[in-house]
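Summary of Year 1 activities. Much of the first year was spent building the evaluation harness for sequence design. The harness presents a backbone, in tokenized form, and records the residue chosen at every position. We chose the following record to illustrate the format because it has been used consistently in internal testing since the harness was completed.
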């Protein structure tokens, strides 16, 4: 984006300034009063200097300082926020009182219920300490259903996250350790969640015998991502296809397309569509949990459809900036949330690449290209197919390029196969979304008809899983890597922004900056071992590396321990193991097989003499049995 464009779009500059201010505050901290004082000085100097060219940078700098001050005040410690941390250290078990903060998800495998919980009090001895924290609760086999807004008393074990964001930690509650104190009050959000549960029942109609496919369908349409089986979740992450489960532009676009088709049948004029589309899309986004990607997509759609109501033309960069400002104003901690960063970075990258491509096509003066370009813009079905394929390939490439630093920083996975996978997965996801919406429409009107569309979606879901599994098995489909440094990340994005938005005389410099960024990243991947290194995940997994040797992982082989070990190893950029050692008798064959498939150990051992294991390398059939 050129400097002139930024001047015409002040929202873009303000959004960038606010994001930079919150990011700098989380990285380096700072006193709120000092930051506010510095911002006041800049604003006073900007008011005294009447030159527009000098005032704009000062205003953006003041926005940076004001955002940093706001983030510093939000992050200030308080007794209510520290109550859970103190309870975690002082007692092996805690008793919490609070309210359910989202729509609970019930696991089809063991009946465990997971939900967000807003704590209100923590028990210390015989007194209650006020607490204000959001935690993730795992409740084993509750005696009755859990609903949003209900007041509960929970007894269990709290474990805080090392680097908390919007959730401070998780709380494990055994059967019989929960008591409902008050029923949920009537609320608009409760009604939305009730409609969501009703929609989940409709999407299950006729395919109850296929629980995995039902879970994927619920995750795609309704945002139940926690219900995805861990093994499939890992496969989707490794292939870079996990983004289809984030309620985002694709989901909001399909819902808007269906609503527009209905509005056209009613004869409503195009400028008035916003009166219907905006409330309906808001209800959908609210029902699916109002995640950052969903709120970004809704805000962009709302600005687009509201612009004709105000007699204005919609502007994509300004709508993205407005969505960013609204989300950060509500939740400043989103500035370090992977979903927030991936959503906005990828969308901004797609907008830049599409704008650059459009300028290149319009400005092309190569001999012999005029006629083919005119045919490509025509109504011929083959031309339409070529346009759609080219647009999809361009979007997939732009998303992959701009998501690399963020995805590797949070997930430590580089997935080149996602470039190929998106060409097949995104159209298939569109068909699943379209068929699912038709299922819900017919299900609410005539429930038996929903089973017919669900049967069609069963075929699409199976095809989706088949494609993703085969992509995961391709050589070099994904690599476990260390994330680039902050300097390398800055150079990467600077190079691409200058390449797509800068003047022509800067293009060679942008390419050199990109090469420098890649060189720095490759150099960071080689970390020599100068001594014994030990990594620990919770109390169930341990990774050890000796000088001159590879990594050895020791774990108990349970599903939760397996996921913690995978996150730990990937965080360190570890993609291969020399030895995998399983301890205890509670290991599960599926978890051990998953570790073998991902890290391909040269040797797998069993440390417990009471257990027997049979395996074949790599990642073959595994059988675990125990002699009690």
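For this record, the design step produced the sequence shown next.
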């Amino acid at each position: 984006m050129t400097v002139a464009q930024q001047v015409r779009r002040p929202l873009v500059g303000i959004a960038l300034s606010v994001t930079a201010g919150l990011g700098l505050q989380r990285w380096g901290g700072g006193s709120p009063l000092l930051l506010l004082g510095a911002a006041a000085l800049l604003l006073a100097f900007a008011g005294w200097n009447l030159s527009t060219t000098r005032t704009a940078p000062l205003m953006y700098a003041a926005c940076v300082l004001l955002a940093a001050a706001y983030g510093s005040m939000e992050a200030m410690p308080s007794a209510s926020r520290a109550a859970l941390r103190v309870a975690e250290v002082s007692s092996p078990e805690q008793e919490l009182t609070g309210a359910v903060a989202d729509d609970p998800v019930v696991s089809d495998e063991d009946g465990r219920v997971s939900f967000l919980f807003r704590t209100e009090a923590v028990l210390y001895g015989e007194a209650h300490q006020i607490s204000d924290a959001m935690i993730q609760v795992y409740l084993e086999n509750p005696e009755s259903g859990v609903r949003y807004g209900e007041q509960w008393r929970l007894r269990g074990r709290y474990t805080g996250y090392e680097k908390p964001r919007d959730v401070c930690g998780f709380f494990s509650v055994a059967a019989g350790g929960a008591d409902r104190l008050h029923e949920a009050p009537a609320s608009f959000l409760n009604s939305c969640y009730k409609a969501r549960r009703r929609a989940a029942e409709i999407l299950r109609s006729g395919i109850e015998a296929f629980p995995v496919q039902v879970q994927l369908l619920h995750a795609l349409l309704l945002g139940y991502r926690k219900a995805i089986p861990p093994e499939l979740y890992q496969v989707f992450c490794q292939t870079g296809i996990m983004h289809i489960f984030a309620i985002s532009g694709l989901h909001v676009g399909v819902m808007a397309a269906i609503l527009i088709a209905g509005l056209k049948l009613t004869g409503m004029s195009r400028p008035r569509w916003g009166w219907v589309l905006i409330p309906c899309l808001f209800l959908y986004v609210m029902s699916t949990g109002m995640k950052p990607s969903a709120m970004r997509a809704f805000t962009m759609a709302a600005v687009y459809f509201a612009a004709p109501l105000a007699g204005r033309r919609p502007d994509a960069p300004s709508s993205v900036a407005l969505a960013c400002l609204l989300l950060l104003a509500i939740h400043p901690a989103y500035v370090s949330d992977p979903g927030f960063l991936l959503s906005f970075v990828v969308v901004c990258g797609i907008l830049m690449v599409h704008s650059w491509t459009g300028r290149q096509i319009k400005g092309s003066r190569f001999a012999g290209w005029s006629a083919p370009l005119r045919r490509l813009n025509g109504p011929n079905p083959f031309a339409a197919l070529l346009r759609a394929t080219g647009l999809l390939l361009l979007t997939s490439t732009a998303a992959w390029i701009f998501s690399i630093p963020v995805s590797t920083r949070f997930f430590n996975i580089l997935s080149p196969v996602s470039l190929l996978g998106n060409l097949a997965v995104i159209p298939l996801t569109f068909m699943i979304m379209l068929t699912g919406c038709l299922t819900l429409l017919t299900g609410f009107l005539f429930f038996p008809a929903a089973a017919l569309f669900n049967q069609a979606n069963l075929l699409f879901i199976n095809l989706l899983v088949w494609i993703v599994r085969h992509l995961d098995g391709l050589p070099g489909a994904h690599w476990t890597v260390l994330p680039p440094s902050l300097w390398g990340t800055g150079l990467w994005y600077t190079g691409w922004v200058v390449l797509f938005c800068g003047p022509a005389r800067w293009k060679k410099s942008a390419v050199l900056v990109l090469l420098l960024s890649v060189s720095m990243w490759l150099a960071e991947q080689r970390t020599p071992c100068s001594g014994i290194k030990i990594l620990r995940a919770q109390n169930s997994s341990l990774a050890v590396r000796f000088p001159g040797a590879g990594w050895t992982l020791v774990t108990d082989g349970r599903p939760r321990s397996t996921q913690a070990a995978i996150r730990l190893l990937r965080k360190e950029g570890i993609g291969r193991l020399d030895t995998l050692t399983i301890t205890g008798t509670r290991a599960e064959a599926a978890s051990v097989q998953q570790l073998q498939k991902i890290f391909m150990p040269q040797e797998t051992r069993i440390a417990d003499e009471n257990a027997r294991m049979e395996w074949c390398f790599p990642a073959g059939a595994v059988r675990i049995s125990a002699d009690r």
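Residues 381-411 form the longest helix (31 residues). Quantitative recovery figures across the full test set are reported in Table 2.
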